[in-house]
Amino acid sequence: xxxxxxxxxxxxxxxxxxxxxxxxxxxxxxxxxxxxxxxxxxxxxxxxxxxxxxxxxxxxxxxxxxxxxxxxxxxxxxxxxxxxxxxxxxxx
Length: 92
Hints:
- This protein is mainly α.
- The chain is built from 2 helices and 2 strands; from the N terminus they run E-E-H-H.
- It has 2 domains: 44 residues, no CATH class; 47 residues.
- 60% of the residues lie in helices and 7% in strands.
């Protein structure tokens, strides 16, 4: 069986040829071509690492934003407390 993309690179026209026992060339049916394309798509894991890294970066960013928000609220409360205490001080 001879099954290669035809035309410009990365363009699949879905045409496969095979050599029969009689020596002729036959084009496989559309169902077979469709099944091979689906099987190839499922088996292809190219780009999976990129998605995993993107998810990891997203989770780290979410954790950082949540943590910084909580810390920022506490720091703001501390500075408000210090400011109030300084305002209570009277200089003789």
